[in-house]
Amino acid sequence: MPPSEKQPLRRFYRTARRSLSPDAQREHSLGIAAEVMRHLDDVTAVAAYLARDGEVDLVHVFKRCWRRRIVIAVPVIRGRDLRFAEYRYGERLSRNRFGIREPAQPVFVTPCVVLTPLVAFDDSGRRLGMGGGYYDRYFAATATPARIGVAHECQRAPTLPATPSDVSLTAVVTENGWQSF
Question: pTM of the predicted model, to two decimals?
Answer without folding.
Answer: 0.93
